[in-house]
Amino acid sequence: MIDLSLADFLALPDSEKVHHIRDYAILYAQQFSREDLDAYCRLADTCREVHKTEQGRTAMAGILRQRMALNFFVQPSSRTFMSFNTAQAYLGMNRMSVRDANISSIAKGESLIDSLRTFISYVDMVVMRHSEDHAAAVAFWTSMKAHRRLVIDGEERPVPIVSGGSGSRQHPTQALLDIYTLQKSLAEIGGIDGKTIMLVGDLKRGRTVRSLSYLMKNYRDVTVIFAAPERYQMEDDILEFLEQAGVRWRKATSISEGIESADAIYMTRIQDEYDKVLPGTHVPASRDFTFTLEHLAAMKSTACLLHPLPKRDEIEEGVDYVDDPRVMYWRQERNGMWMRVAIIAKLFKVAHLITDFSMEPEG
Ligand code: NCD
Questions:
Q1: Are 200 and 167 within one domain?
Q2: Which domain holds residue 248?
Q3: Which atom of ligand 1 is nearest to the CA of 75?
Q4: What's the rounded Cα separation, in Å, for the pair 234 and 9?
Q5: Which of 26, 181, 208 is the pocket-test mutation for ligand 1 (most atoms within 8 Å of CB)?
Q6: Are 159 and 150 in contact (CB under 8 A)?
Q7: Which of 1, 94, 259, 314 lies 20 to 30 Å from 249 when distance is taken between CA atoms?
Q8: Domain for residue 119, yes or no?
């Protein structure tokens, strides 16, 4: 199903890898078109609605009852791991997890690729978080090469691989849930088109902001503000991508510089797992890049505040518990779970079962 060697596949630019990936797996934010994003958001809304009724919950839990999912998370995770688990449970999937490489055969010296091939011979889906940038691509290549095929909607397909975060480069499902949250938050003022999105914090090593930046190509007349200390500024590959896609961007040297023009502010923590810091200590956010109650007061009344979480000191204590509808990050978490239900339903081509149910007359 793939003629390339692993080395040749990994050497391809992501824009070409995407042609091989098609809709078999979710690895890169560049995979998604505007049409896809709108469809994912609509489906996430439908899943949410259907799940509100007892009948809906029962119907959903029957959809993927015979399927087995593996959540292979060998890098720390709370939200992504739990929301995928919950989403899989809502669709009735059986679930297994590997969260510690030290208690799998990797500790005996097995290669990642052999471990993956083993996983693929038991399970029908692998969600994977790994510290290596290429790990999800390796998993995809392995599933393309493995003998086992699933029959999904009458077609033989490789075991789906979903990246739950790969190194410091990509976190595509987070980007989808961020789009879902932005679209919902900005719905009353016409959605994401024409808006200014300010990304704040460690943009250099933050995979969420990189993946979200890629998705901006799908929206008309968007401006991205990159607010970060110089050493954490967004890398040139993303800036060039936006340039080519015709997305306006500028850099800012503090939150204050963009707060009045931003329609959405997306905070991130310093990714100090890539720094040499003493165990138990963390690099503090600098004052200019800490979101305060004064910033909240200066934000547009229609704007929203997002964060992929986990957060530390980059959002001042006090912002969490103000009763302000613009503070979206806790709802963003829940949106993530619905988006992941939608992602799984699409991978297994069962989305129509959920949409059809939502259209059935009650009673
Ligand atoms: C993010 C990640 O893992 O990249 N977390 C998440 O999935 N919500 C963000 C982070 O760890 O800073």
A1: no
A2: 172-334
A3: 3
A4: 26
A5: 208
A6: yes
A7: 314
A8: yes
